[in-house]
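TICKET: design request
STATUS: open
ATTACHED STRUCTURE:
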């Protein structure tokens, strides 16, 4: 496995390379004035109390994109006082097929007494998030840069894609989707684990203007069926099975049951595109309906590696992501193209203090908004190298995270507080053991 520049990662490199650890949480209420800081920089003293602040070292601040609370406050105040100017300047760094109306950068009504609540960004502008996340990086000379590393469930399972290779795979799937009649505004359900095919499928939908709806591949058949009935997709994209740790999960069986349930509720899906995840299950062991099911490897790879971009309005839908349903029926939240593109790119850049040489790892699943924004779109919009991890952080042992950090020279590690606490409980022995 090579690094972004093609060199082999050095063993034991994490202590030198890992410069930024961030957790997926809000700051405690006692954080005071510096509410923009939510980073732990290795090498500094640990917080003595839960609500203590840990300030970055002078060396870190000197090279940071936002080097001081004062600079952050100035940026924040500009964004509030002049949102049109602030976001227009950022928008200019991306490609727009047609520029927005300067007088309608942002329009909103949040007062229900004045009519329906609505917010719109960059009215009149046309763009495409897939083009900006992939093509734009190639055109700027980074086609050979690693876009994604993939680490499988089992140690030793790995892969990588340059930006040029990623574009080819995205275009092949996009062309296949177009060939079966999927087009602008059509919904596509994606029920995949953290294989590279998951972000590829998201980007392929975005490229042709289709609306992807990723469903976490740990949800039940009933949960999947609810989402199918609600968004009425043209097809479901899944894989035959996945292993989480030592446990096999038969995803295709779950999809089959969900499609039966959705048909009972009046929504019939005529196509299930299935990726053969050979490390979890062979195709001959997979239950199959020949009139409906298609193997990804049998059809997608036959299509051209170039696909025209569908230019969409800034307010056209990009994806539909459902709430968990823990407090009632899952509610679909629709995210539009232009505003989401700018915000996720900007927050990734500044929250993680991203630099072009960084290797970035976010442990979130793309079934959640964090995975959408900070595994797929945010990193790629910044030309980053991102690590996609299929497995679980404690398999086959509690040193797996640090093994991965070493293997890929990870410099930015974004994870949940629960995992941080788990790693702390395991102590330094787990890290030393690898």
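STATUS: resolved
RESOLUTION: sequence designed for all positions
ATTACHED SEQUENCE:
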């Amino acid at each position: 496995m090579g690094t972004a520049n093609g060199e082999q990662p050095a063993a034991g490199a994490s202590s030198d390379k890992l410069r930024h650890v961030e957790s997926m949480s809000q700051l405690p209420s006692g954080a005071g004035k510096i509410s923009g800081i939510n980073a732990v920089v290795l090498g500094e003293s640990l917080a003595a109390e839960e609500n203590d602040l840990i300030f970055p070292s002078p060396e870190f601040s000197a090279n940071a994109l936002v080097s001081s609370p004062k600079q952050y406050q100035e940026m924040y105040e500009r964004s509030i006082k002049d949102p049109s100017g602030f976001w227009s300047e950022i928008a200019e760094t991306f490609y727009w097929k047609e520029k927005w109306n300067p007088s309608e950068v942002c329009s909103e009504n949040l007062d229900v007494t004045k009519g329906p609540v609505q917010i719109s960004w960059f009215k009149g502008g046309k763009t495409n998030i897939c083009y900006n996340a992939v093509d734009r990086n190639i055109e700027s000379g980074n086609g050979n840069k690693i876009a994604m590393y993939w680490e499988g469930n089992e140690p030793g399972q790995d892969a990588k894609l340059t930006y040029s290779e990623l574009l080819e795979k995205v275009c092949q799937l996009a062309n296949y989707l177009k060939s079966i009649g999927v087009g602008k505004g059509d919904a596509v359900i994606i029920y995949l684990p953290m294989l590279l095919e998951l972000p590829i499928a998201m980007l392929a939908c975005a490229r042709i203007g289709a609306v992807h709806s990723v469903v976490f591949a740990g949800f039940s058949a009933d949960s999947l069926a609810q989402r199918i009935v609600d968004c009425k997709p043209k097809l479901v994209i899944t894989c035959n099975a996945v292993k989480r740790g030592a446990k096999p999960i038969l995803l295709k069986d779950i999809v089959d049951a969900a499609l039966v349930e959705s048909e009972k509720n009046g929504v019939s899906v005529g196509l299930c595109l299935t990726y053969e995840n050979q490390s979890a299950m062979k195709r001959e062991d997979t239950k199959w309906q020949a009139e409906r099911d298609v193997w990804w490897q049998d059809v997608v790879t036959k299509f051209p590696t170039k696909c025209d971009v569908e230019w969409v309005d800034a307010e056209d839908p990009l994806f539909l992501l459902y709430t968990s349903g823990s407090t009632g029926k899952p509610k679909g939240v629709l995210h539009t193209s232009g505003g989401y593109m700018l915000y996720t790119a900007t927050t990734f850049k500044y929250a993680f203090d991203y630099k072009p040489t960084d290797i970035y790892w976010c442990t979130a699943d793309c079934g959640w908004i964090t995975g959408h924004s900070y595994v797929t779109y945010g990193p790629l919009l910044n030309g980053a190298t991102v690590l996609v991890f299929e497995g679980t952080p404690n398999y086959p042992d509690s040193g797996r995270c640090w093994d991965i950090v070493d293997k890929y020279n990870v410099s930015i590690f974004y994870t949940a507080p629960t995992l941080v606490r788990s790693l702390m409980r395991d102590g330094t022995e787990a890290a030393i053991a690898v």
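CLOSING REMARK: Confidence is low (pLDDT under 50) at residues 1-15, 26-45. The first helix runs from residue 14 to 17.
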